[in-house]
């Protein structure tokens, strides 16, 4: 249990707590009383029942890219259920579907799909360390969204543990709740264990290019033009704009 439950007295507590991205401008008087890192569904159910019994709020963390602090701070005593150990990804190329546990990252998802097929993909974000739990439940905009919609548009089933510890799927939770967790934030309605997604057909080769302009090279006029055509070009073409200082170390390859 020492590898599943971390309290402030545990030497690894701070490492686990601070192991993901966080917004340093967001502070709280409270740190989690306990951090759970479950390895299966039954341990999540136990954590929910225990937290309810002791009157503790629950915060759920997937990849940790949460700049509002919703997954790691609270104004009242709380626990974190950290899904870092729930990273299973099962690809079914014949039916063009995949089951993805909520602790997996986008990079892991893309890698596992590419292992199985060069002509299947999934639409989601570009940062490989973002966790699918929060990303999918928040919508999940990505580079192929103009053609295929968001990640949430391509979710066909889910497994969720509700506040009473019951495991629900699309059929048992009903279409209203299934609709809500795809864009309304998964932790608002329960703890998402895994998503079943529809994989998408893509060509073997795609074209990627960058155009760099400074203000002296009429960048402002180019941005103005981009604003007027970005929503009108072919759905197979995504035009993405980055604005940065010429002295910034930020680069896009």
TrEMBL record:
Membrane as UniProt keyword: no
Coiled-coil regions listed: none
Pfam families: FAD_binding_4
Necessary cofactors: FAD
GO molecular function, one term: FAD binding
Tree of life domain: Eukaryota
UniProt keyword terms in alphabetical order: Disulfide bond
InterPro entries the UniProt entry points to: FAD-bd_PCMH, FAD-bd_PCMH-like_sf, FAD-bd_PCMH_sub1, FAD-bd_PCMH_sub2, Oxid_FAD_bind_N
Domain FAD-binding PCMH-type, chain residue ranges per copy: 28-202
PANTHER family documented for this protein: OS08G0158400 PROTEIN
Protein name as annotated: Reticuline oxidase-like protein
Native source species: Nicotiana attenuata (Coyote tobacco)
